[in-house]
Amino acid sequence: MNELLAVPLEEGGVIIVESVAPAHEGGSVKAARPGELVGQVKRSLEEALEPVTAAARATLLKLREAGPDEVTVEFGVQFKTELGAVISKSTGECNFKVTLRWGGADADG
Q1: Which residue of 39, 43, 87, 93 is surrounded by the most CB atoms within 10 Å?
Q2: In degrees, to the nearest 5, what angle opens at C-alpha 20 toward C-alphas 16 and 23?
Q3: What are the distances in angstroms from CA 101 to CA 22, 32, 39, 91?
Q4: How confident is the model at residue 109 (pLDDT cuts 50, 70, 90)?
């Protein structure tokens, strides 16, 4: 079951995001009706995304060292009540999907 989290914005207000609730194998579980808010992220959206932004920047800079004409990095971002923004699986079982393209002399047609 997914849960709704309130994420504050630095300039005021909040954004509501849907997050995949962790699977529980017993014990108590925080319950909510469908569409009901179940958590609030402590940090602002901008603050929560800063580590994700830094990771994306570091990944892009490192991949550019290979000298491609184009770099594409794709990843998912998920919000957790206690952690804020985390990099999640985006395609199948990976956290990052990377595409590097080189034009080459014969690529122009």
Answers
A1: 39
A2: 145
A3: 37, 46, 41, 19
A4: very low
87-107, pLDDT tens digit by residue?
Answer: 776 666 667 778 889 987 655
Cβ–Cβ under 8 Å, residues 91 and 97: yes
How many domains does the chain divide into? 1
Residues 6+ positions from 23 with CB-CB distance below 8 Å: none
Distance CA 51, CA 30 (A): 28
- What angle is formed at CA 45 by the lines to CA 39 and CA 47, rounded to 5 degrees? 115
Those residues with Cβ within 8 angstroms of residue 98's Cβ, 6 or more apart along the chain or in another chain: 59, 63, 71, 72, 73, 74
What's the mean pLDDT in 31-40? 61
Average pLDDT, the chain: 77
Domain limits at 85? 2-108
